[in-house]
Structures are given as structure tokens and as C-alpha cells.
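Below is one protein, fold included:
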Amino acid sequence: MRKLLTALAVAGASLTGVVLTAAQATPQADPTAGLKQYSDTFKVQHPYNLPESARFSTTAGPEYNAWIMKGDKPFSQGSGTGPRTEMRWGTNWSQTEHQWSADVLIDSGTEGACIMQVKGSTGGEAVYINVHNNGGLYNSVDKTPIATGMWGKWFHLNTDFNPANGSFRVWINGNQVLSGHYSAPASKVWYFKNGVYNTTGAKAEAHFKNITFWAK
């Protein structure tokens, strides 16, 4: 299934750079400043043996709801990857700064699940935000903690990556909580994903609304 959505993108940062927790961070300028908004479409990746509606729904808003259960199948038969229900955005890009942003809510009990990725087409992630330790958010590219106690509350998340210089940044509720650098070949293609990928708990579920994209 493909759907049209207006989106946003922002500036880059660096992987081994400054890291702040959400509580320690100070308000920043608008992360989307200097960027142009664009529209994108998505396709839902879900366990191959289930209909999309068994793991993904759209409710009033729109609000996009994605969940998986422990033991779910991968998105394609024979795949060695973990279970997922993810919105795979259609725009593929390289050597240009892009940003994804959304309001996000993570259900209590979600553990060991990735909720947002800046994904490389040949593997690897510049940003890989996942949930551990009772609602803590981590960037597992460098296993950096960026926020705690995020279960059961709406928060605004911005993720920005510029492949031209390898710079990435993450904001929570307008506060920059992570910057770093991720090196990759100039030919590498990137795209955004959000939803839930993998779980160490019985169920992982996340909700997204006001999803937007920006680019330089």
C-alpha cells in the first residue's frame, strides 16, 4: 500500500559528536530553518504471513499505528531480518541534507524496538533510534542514550542527515539531543523509515502523526 503525505527535512550533524539528554538540552532554533518542505509516499512493511491490517492502522488525524508481536515473521519469506511493521518512505536520496519529523508516542512495554531509521540502501543506518530500559531512547549506531522515560507520552522528534559531510542531528521537543558523524561512500542511497522493528518484549507498538519531510 502506498499513501501520499506532506513532509519535512532539516540540516545534518555528526556521529561521534556532542550528546545531551533531553532534560539537559537547551531549546534550539527551528530545526527546519533553511530547508524546503516536500511530500512523500510510503509503503508498509509487515510480517509476510499477515495482512497489513493485522499490524498497521490509520486512525483520525491521521494517526499511524504500527505494532508487532514477539515471534512475528519477517517482512518477506526467507529473510533473516527481524519482525517489523514500518512505513518505508519512497524518496531515495544521496549527497543532500534531508530531515524527517513527527509527533511520536511509544506504548508502555515496548522494548528492544527501533522506531525510526535513516537507512542506507546497501545496509547500515546513519541514525537508528530504539527503545530500551523502560522507555529510554538510544541511538544504537553508537549506543548513545538520548532520552529517558518516554513511554506513554507524545513527543516531537526531528532527525536530520546530510550524506555530503556525514553530519546527523536529532531533536526531541525542539531540543537538540544528539549530533554525530556517519561516514559512507558518496554513492550510497538513503531513505527514511519509522514504525517498529524487532522486539524483546511481548509486543512493541508506536504511533505517529504530523509526519513531515524537508530537504536542502
Remarks:
- The CA atoms of residues 115 and 196 lie 5 Å apart.
- Residues 1-21 have pLDDT under 50 and may be disordered.
